[in-house]
Write a structure and sequence with these properties.
Blueprint lengths: L2 H12 L4 H11 L3 H14 L7 H9 L4 H45 L38 E6 L6 E9 L2 E9 L5 E9 L4 E9 L13 E7 L6 E9 L5 E8 L2
Antiparallel strand pairs: 1-2, 2-3, 3-6, 4-5, 4-7, 7-8
Helix pairs in contact: 1-3
Pfam family, one: zf-HC2
Protein name: RNA polymerase subunit sigma
Keywords: Membrane, Transcription, Transcription regulation, Transmembrane, Transmembrane helix
Length: 258
C-alpha cells in the first residue's frame, strides 16, 4: 500500500476529506482489501476525538498534506489514550484500597462489638435552645417539643379536673393546645369558647373512655388541640363541659384568658 493511500485512510477515518476526495477513496476502498484492513485499525482513533481540543483537531486536518505529521499525531493520540487508561486504573485501584480499608475497619469494629466510625454527612441545623419556662410534668410538650403561647394551669376545686392550656393569637383567630387530667369516664365532653360579649362557640368535642384520663386506671392525660376564629382579646374564658344525652353542658373546668 502506498504512502498516499495510507494518508487517505487516516484522513477518511478522521473525517477531514472533502466530498470529492471522500468519493474517490470510497471507490478505491471497494477494490482494495489492504486499505479496508487499515481503515478497520483506524476506527479506535475516531473515538479519541471527544478527548482532544481544538488545537488537536487542527493538527489532524493538517495530516491531509503532511504524512509525517499524521504519524506523530497518531502516536501522540495513542500515548494519550494509554496514559488516560493508566490514570483510570490507578484511580480505580486507589478507590478499592480506600474502600477496602474503610470496610476493614467497619467489619473489624463490628466483630469486636464496637460501632462503626461516623461517616461525614450534610451539616444539620442547630437545635433550638431549650425553653427555661417552668411547667408541670403533665404540660403539653413536656419531655418533647414545647408548646408555644400563653400557658394557663387550672384545677377545678369542685370537680378536681386538671387542665393546662396554651393559647396563641394567630391571624386567623386563636390556637388552643391543652391537656386534661383527673377526668374520669365514661362521658362526653366538649370545649366551649365564651366571649366577652357572652356569646359562645363549641370548638371541640370528644369521648372519655371508662378508664378516664389522668386517673388511677389510666395515668395518661388527654392531649388535644383546637382553634377558633375569635381573637384572644375577645375571649373571656374557655370551658370544658360534660354533655348529657340531651346536649346540656355541665362545666368541668373553666380556663380564664386574662
Amino acid at each position: 500500500m502506498s504512502r498516499v493511500d495510507h494518508m487517505d485512510v487516516a484522513a477518511y477515518a478522521l473525517g477531514v476529506l472533502d466530498e470529492q476526495d471522500m468519493e474517490r477513496f470510497e471507490e478505491h476502498l471497494a477494490t482494495c482489501w489492504a486499505c479496508a484492513a487499515e481503515l478497520e485499525t483506524m476506527v479506535p482513533v475516531v473515538g479519541l476525538l471527544s478527548d482532544i481540543d481544538e488545537e488537536s483537531v487542527t493538527a489532524l486536518e493538517q495530516t491531509h498534506s503532511n504524512p509525517v505529521l499524521l504519524d506523530r499525531t497518531l502516536v501522540a493520540m495513542r500515548t494519550h489514550r494509554r496514559k488516560a487508561r493508566f490514570r483510570q486504573i490507578l484511580a480505580t485501584a486507589a478507590a478499592v484500597v480506600v474502600f477496602g480499608g474503610i470496610t476493614g475497619v467497619v467489619f473489624s469494629n463490628l466483630s469486636d462489638g464496637g460501632t462503626a466510625p461516623p461517616i461525614a454527612g450534610p451539616p444539620t441545623a442547630p437545635l433550638d435552645p431549650p425553653s427555661t419556662r417552668p411547667g408541670n410534668s403533665g404540660d403539653p410538650g413536656t419531655g418533647g417539643n414545647l408548646q408555644e403561647g400563653k400557658q394557663v394551669n387550672v384545677t377545678d376545686p369542685n370537680t378536681g379536673v386538671k387542665a393546662t392550656f396554651f393559647l396563641v393569637s394567630k391571624d386567623f383567630g386563636t390556637n388552643v393546645a391543652f391537656t386534661l387530667g383527673r377526668l374520669p369516664g365514661p362521658r362526653e365532653c366538649r370545649l366551649v369558647v365564651v366571649r366577652e360579649d357572652a356569646s359562645t362557640e363549641v370548638i371541640s368535642s370528644w369521648s372519655v373512655p371508662p378508664g378516664g384520663y389522668g386517673t388511677n386506671s389510666n395515668p395518661q392525660q388527654l392531649a388535644l388541640a383546637a382553634a377558633t376564629a375569635s381573637k384572644l382579646d375577645d375571649v373571656k374564658h374557655f370551658q370544658v363541659q360534660e354533655v348529657d344525652g340531651k346536649g346540656v353542658g355541665t362545666p368541668l373546668v373553666t380556663v380564664p384568658t386574662g
